[in-house]
């Protein structure tokens, strides 16, 4: 269950990171409210996940999924550069996240 909470927390991390693009420096009210709400949900779910998972593993997975997912979403949503190097490095992040989970870290 902790891994599922962590995965959902990471999805909300991607939501708030992508939401930052729409807040206009937190001057646009509703996008700012949505972004802050996603931040709160993300951190709350992370805090629940670390009750059973090591903090180092959980935080690395949370930020890794958030960073990789946000980078990929940025390519599709915001026309950010799509290069082999960029995708390769995102792949390394994903490999690290999978490696942490597969090696039983936190079980």
UniProtKB/TrEMBL annotation:
Membrane-spanning segments: 29-47, 59-78, 84-103
Pfam family, one: Multi_Drug_Res
Gene3D superfamilies, per the entry: 1.10.3730.20
Gene Ontology CC annotations of this record: plasma membrane
Localization (cell): Cell membrane
Keywords: Cell membrane, Membrane, Transmembrane, Transmembrane helix, Transport
Protein name: Ligand-binding protein SH3
